[in-house]
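ugh ok fine here u go
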Amino acid sequence: MPIVAGGLYFALAIFCAVHVVRTRQNLYWLLILFGFPLLGSLVYFFAVYFPNSRLRRQAMKTVAAAAKAIDPQREVREARLLFEETPTAQNQMRLAAALLEVGQPEDAVQCYEACLKGPFAHDPEIRYGLARAYVECQRHGDALRQLEPLKADHPDYRPEPVSLLLARSLAGSSRAADARREYESAIARFNTWEAKAEYAIWAYAVGDLRTAEGLRGELEKIAARWNPMTRELNEASERRLRAARELAERATQAA
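structure:
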């Protein structure tokens, strides 16, 4: 057993030493690691490796998700309190974003609209947030009145999210041909999983199963290469895609 334990300590020290060299840490860590294999490795792991690793990011994300599940209104309360104490446009934007996140788009619209007054009347971040809130409220025409000038005035501001939100707004305004062009433009420009997924969701909704199924094949190939973190980040879009496909299939069977 002592030999096995010693081997594990030495293996951990080598692992940390490789990280030292690859990430160009101070070389005195090598002396510590091999001079004190167990203690040195533990100190290095928690002082250097863990704070910059995916493990920490995943742990922080898990903690945040758990906190959100336990108390989903916490960010809203904190943002509201901060805005009441210091009623700045930045704090009101934070409150609006928090309201939108917890499914209160009508209240978010009021906050964002208030932010657009005065010197922030043309702020792209506020206009984009307001457009998102409008879309969640099914106010697609109002969203277009924010997105079309935003795209023209600030072409480099969040180009893909703006393009996809614009396409959704066009679709919601019964401008199907314009929506298709915007989706196809987004795919041509960005060629991302999200752009293809949004186009497929729309195609299922309008009964264009040929386009939707073709995109689904591409999406499945991309998703097959995902790591768990990427899959988690795209979970909401995947649910929407599955729901759109199931709804289209039921409509086809009923016809």
